[in-house]
Amino acid sequence: MALLYGLIWRLLLALVRIKRATVSWLRVRLRTWKGRFWQRTMAALLLPVPVSEFKQKKAGADQSSDSDRDGKGAGSRRSRWISDGISLEKLPVHIGLVVAEEELSYTDIANMVVWCMAVGVSYVSVYDHHGIFQKNNSWLQEEIVRQQHNLLGGDDSTFNMELLKNGTDKPQHFVVSCRPVVKVLSPEDGKHSIVQAARKLCHSVEKKEWSSKDISVSMLDVLLRESKNIPDPELVVKFGPVNSTLGFLPWHIRLTEFVSLPSHKNVSYEDLFGSLQRYSACHQRLGQ
Amino acid sequence: MSWIREGELNLLEKISANILMAGPMPKHVAFIMDGNRRFARKKKLERHDGHMQGFNKLAETLRWCKHLNIPEVTVYAFSIENFKRSKEEVDGLLDLARQKFERLLEEQENLEKHGVCIRVLGDLNMLPLDLQQVIAKAVVMTKNHNKCFLNVCFAYTSRYEITNAVREMAWGVEQGLIKASDVSEALLSECLYSNNSPNPDLLIRTSGEVRLSDFLLWQTSHSCLVFQSVLWPEYSFWNLCEAIVQYQLNHKSIQKARELHREEQALQQLEADCACIAEHLQHQGNGKPADAQRRQEALQHYTVTREERVQDFLQALKHKRDTFFTNLCSETVLT
Known about the structure:
By secondary structure, chain A is an alpha/beta fold. Chain A contains ten helices and six strands; from the N terminus they run ααααβαβααββααββα.
């Protein structure tokens, strides 16, 4: 009997995986197949099975399917993206791009960073739980600059990014940075940073500078932001089939909205904009 | 209504449970039971009734978990942020909690029969004293049960929990039980309210919201997160099965990621120990660099003494926490 249940279980998981792969494949196809007829047919065929990935496609995103590829150029793309950003009710200040996949595509991540900033997001962080992006930080930076040229034209002055390296930021207490910031993060910026802050506080207590009773949430928060001033991400777009944050900034994600996309490879602007629309529509009650 | 629901699964549910249990099952599931008020609005009920239905659903979910051999469940019952709600609603929720915990005390025999251990995690001194006392009695009454575990997060947020853990470690330093250099990820985990539980394997949030709302942020860093759009009072056995299937699909990749994290943690601990040794040998030494063997011996000795120190500290912390609850219980006897 146990063998039979085991077999049925394997079959069940195989079916779910096939459904996921089919939906993913169809998502890509639907983008190229024009016409609502095809979209409706495919949605109808998959009706018995939840098709949550399709819900992200709203009117705004549909219109813009091919204008990336027509010859209108960087200028019109830039203005379209800016107007897309303005059209949203709310835009996140910080977007986290969490890649939960084994193979990484620097070009696709670079594209997303450039799109995020073109739409008006001021802080973009990139994360993978092996820390590979951080190890190859300079490669990623070059790719971002390259895509910035490709997608937005060679006019550097409009769009200056601060590409922050791993390690401590310079203190920026009274400086308001107008330039978008890109940060490459790894698991070290998560629990390990919290432990380092805790160690610092305990050292102060050891030296009798503070008492343990003085330690508060805001104290720990300030200490965490002293060395790496990362604002809380309002939105995390997670790429890949793994449903986990995989150690991404545990302290900072208390109110973060999570949107999942199947993969970061060949991701389109519409996918990203769909996530932004979803974020824009969400309503946080903040406990109330 | 009772916390413990008796009753078997029906045939279809039993078959589905057996199929699921052929694969890896989560040992600890956490629930963010969201959607009570929206349910009340939808069914044109009072908010209070929505919360009552929510509690009933909790009892039913515990029954399903028992049949699915899931021994540990953690639920987010009341956040520190919820104190911001209207006085009427907050008082209603605290009253409901009072009722339910008092009911729990009446079910002592049943709880013993099923071996249910109740723990309440949170900044309990934010609650009215009488509620603290009732909670303390429930916790002390069930603390030796070990068949299944229900952790209720009440007056809880994850940031407060992490800060409290840091405060406890600082207390340990003040008492001379540990050194600041002993602070590590593992030690911080041992100082959280949830230190008696393994990290959740699966976190489920209902009602369609896709955020963690300051719940178990540290503990769920490598957990499977499942967001479901069903409202909590409408949660069904099949919703739970769906979430478990998600867990099973993610199981291998998450295990790999957890293993990687454990290895990195061990490496960081080793580096920290080596740094302490290096400093110590420098102070002791006469200018000559210590040879590899001496360093190795010093490292082993240091690690052993550090671990002993930490164990003594954790015992003291456990005693402090147990005393908090027993004191609350004895206060009730006196009043």
